[in-house]
Specification:
The chain is an alpha/beta fold and about 350 residues long. The protein has helices at about 15-25, 40-45, 60-75, 130-135, 160-170, 190-200, 300-315; strands spanning about 1-5, 5-10, 30-35, 50, 60, 80, 85-90, 95-100, 105-110, 110-115, 155, 175-180, 205-210, 210-220, 220-230, 235-240, 245, 265, 270, 285, 290, 325, 350. The strands form seven sheets. A five-stranded parallel beta sheet has the order 6-3-2-10-20, covered by helices on one side. Helix 1 (about 15-25) runs parallel beside helix 3 (about 60-75), helix 1 packs parallel to helix 7 (about 300-315) and helix 5 packs parallel to helix 6 (about 190-200). The two termini are about 30 Å apart. Bound molecules: flavin-adenine dinucleotide (FAD). Flavin-adenine dinucleotide (FAD) binds near residues 40, 41, 289 and 302. Keywords: FAD, Flavoprotein, NADP, Oxidoreductase. Belongs to the ferredoxin--NADP reductase type 2 family. InterPro entries: FAD/NAD-bd_sf, FAD/NAD-binding_dom, Fd--NADP_Rdtase_type_2, Ferredoxin-NADP_redctase_2.
Amino acid sequence: MIKTDILIIGAGPTGLFAVFEAGLLKLKCHLIDALPQAGGQCSEIYPKKPIYDIPGFPEVLAGDLVDNLMEQIKSFQPGFTLGERAETIKKLEDGTFVVTTNKGTEHHAPVVAIAGGLGSFEPRKPLLENLSKFEDNGVAYMIKDPEVYRDKKVIIAGGGDSALDWSIFLADVASQVTLVHRRNEFRGALDSVEKVQELKDKGKLNLITPAEIIGLNGDTQLESVLIRKISDDNEELVLEVDDFIPLFGLSPKLGPIGDWGLEIEKNAIKVDTFDYQTNIPGIYAIGDVNTYPGKLKLILCGFHEATLMCQSAFQKIHPDKKYVMKYTTVGGVSGFDGTKKEAPKAVVKAIE
Ligand SMILES: Cc1cc2nc3c(=O)[nH]c(=O)nc-3n(C[C@H](O)[C@H](O)[C@H](O)COP(=O)(O)OP(=O)(O)OC[C@H]3O[C@@H](n4cnc5c(N)ncnc54)[C@H](O)[C@@H]3O)c2cc1C
């Protein structure tokens, strides 16, 4: 049985940063993730997409952010159970927990932090008859490596941030980018909508709205799509393409965590914003997986929640210890991991 102080379910950015905050308090962490790699949505859905709202980073690729988070927690030596889904939880008489994965790996901890994000990743797919035939043969629901689309003719469908951002990004990569959306209005950031319009005006992007893809053609590989304009005459046109990328978002599925007796609201776990604890003492929920009044599903909010969660977890694990907060920039001291570092460096928080 794997034993740790805080068992974190989900190795997305929130779970990874929780390891750092816990490490400052000398608490050990172990992470479970259903995916084969750490990084959550950043690694799985948009590793090459730039993020602009991480404090201190005017621009950082999602994949690089994950690499940096991994570097930041390295010295705390967290354990990982990757490629396994947390399936069941059992509360023992002493108030500690045993979490078992779908492969039977057991983990024991006094505190469990659920950082499960959207849960299992299931893209919403368009209702097209022969869609599955072209999956991986011209149809993809996520862009992992934009280089795959270099000098290709690409059609993207969708009206959210993902569709807008990737259309903007691929305009410089693909030979032709077409964005199709069912409405004239987009749900994404205003700035991105304006950029798409600018690219359209410069002839670097085709924008077809309101319209929808109603057919896929090709032998084994996708060769063209049938587009229907949503207008009085419902005009139809065939567009030759190499790739069709419907970006309709992910259908949020909590999966097995939904059966753990936690209070759930709209597919998210309700928490107390004092310390992000759930209705079950000792189980916390941080990042995209939780909900509370005013919740924003942003990475920086997950970082904040992880920080407060660790403070509360510390008191739960060490009720006898007094915690005194200090900043991480104290000159001329040892690194927070105990190694000697050049000043000014780490250690920040001291525990008495
Ligand atoms: C295209 C796109 C662009 C975005 N751009 C931005 C942006 O610019 N700025 C920003 O702040 N945010 C952005 N976001 C949102 C941001 O990615 C999320 O807020 C962030 O990833 C949430 O992190 P998390 O760690 O809480 O969850 P996630 O990243 O979703 O990670 C959760 C992890 O938990 C795992 N998991 C779930 N259930 C289980 C289980 N039962 N057992 C084991 N593992 C489990 C999943 O496999 C996953 O790896 C964007 C999202 C998308 C899709």
